[in-house]
Design a protein that fits this description.
Two copies of one chain form a homodimer.
Chain A (H helix, E strand, L loop, with lengths): L7 H9 L7 H21 L11 H36 L6 H42 L5 H26 L5 H30 L1
Helix pairs in contact in A: 2-3, 2-4, 2-5, 3-4, 4-5, 4-6, 5-6
Chain lengths: ~210, ~210
């Protein structure tokens, strides 16, 4: 059963349990999914409504994109668990002999690389959710503009939450070139999110 | 069935539907619940562990408080829906005669008051979740400190999301004294959250 089939109570209890997964990386992706879902509501509340005739095609496209993004973020919730579990599994590999130790280091590097790229994907997806929240604030039902604001706030929280996981796993990577590329992307996404987040909140408060 | 018995898929689809509830207010309270749940994990991962002997009682108290808070936030998710639905119901009351109109205005004021106090309660609860995330960062399992950081980020997002709902419903209230009191509390909670949020993130990045 996928994570989407879990009840909220079950999911919250699996978070709270004394096991590292699911944890913050899964919550980060869930924030993005909640954002996409709220954006769909703001779009759906204007579909077929008077005063929104000129944006009907945009609203349908917004619903479609947000729906696909929501599904992708649910997959990322599960990927995050798998990637982190692979780090734990690699840590537990035997380290008695020199070849054992070398194999363990390679496995750990591979696992940390995975555990870095999954939250980086979550950051990209949350950044997309933030952009869709902006479209919702601009074109969706104006009575639901605070919901577009909430969509922006949770997308930004998901993005920042994922960035904490990128950073901590990145620190374990020995590949300097990869580290440099990821750090550059991370900084760029955070700056852009800050800009778009402020734009949405200004629209909501205006 | 309570909201906690809904699957994540069901909840996300109910958000996305072309009905105003559940919406941003429900997501705000859920963010607080996710935060409380992550705090419990960070505490639970240090319960009975070497190196945490001196904080065992604190960790158990942290788990207890966060668990109670998580339950309260699930109730607030449902209260938010009921309060907003009562605004819609009041709006639909008859307004043909003068007594009808007066009764409708009174019902709407009562409903808006409820729709203001519920997200204000959510803000208080998220503020409490943020405080517990700080305790988790200080006393919980140090390998899970990014999870305490995520707990802080989602609590803060929930708090800011709830503040958007407080503000929009507050604007409809005619009781100036009540409006003044709520505005004062709102500003205070937001400033305090900003301070505590920065403190947690500084600990995580340190």
């Amino acid at each position: 059963m996928g994570v989407g089939g879990q009840t909220l109570d079950e999911y919250l209890e699996s978070l709270a349990a004394a096991t590292p997964t699911p944890g913050g990386g899964s919550v980060a992706a869930l924030c993005g999914a909640l954002s996409a879902s709220l954006t769909r509501m703001v779009a759906n509340l204007a579909v077929g409504k008077e005063g929104y005739e000129s944006v009907q095609a945009d609203l349908k496209e917004l619903e479609r994109s947000a729906n696909a993004l929501q599904a992708r973020l649910l997959v990322l919730m599960e990927e995050d668990v798998k990637a982190y579990d692979s780090v734990i599994a690699a840590m537990r590999l035997p380290k008695k002999t020199e070849p054992d130790r070398a194999a363990r280091v390679r496995a750990m590097q591979k696992a940390y690389e995975w555990a870095t790229t999954v939250p980086l994907d979550t950051m990209h997806a949350c950044s997309e959710a933030l952009g869709l929240a902006l479209t919702a604030a601009l074109k969706g039902n104006r009575n639901a503009i605070t919901d577009a604001g909430v969509a922006a706030l949770v997308a930004e929280a998901g993005l920042r939450a994922a960035s904490l996981n990128v950073r901590i796993n990145l620190a374990a990577l020995k590949d300097n070139a990869l580290r440099g590329r990821v750090e550059e992307q991370l900084g760029k996404i955070l700056r852009e999110a800050d800009r778009v987040g402020h734009e949405v909140i200004a629209l909501v408060e205006g």
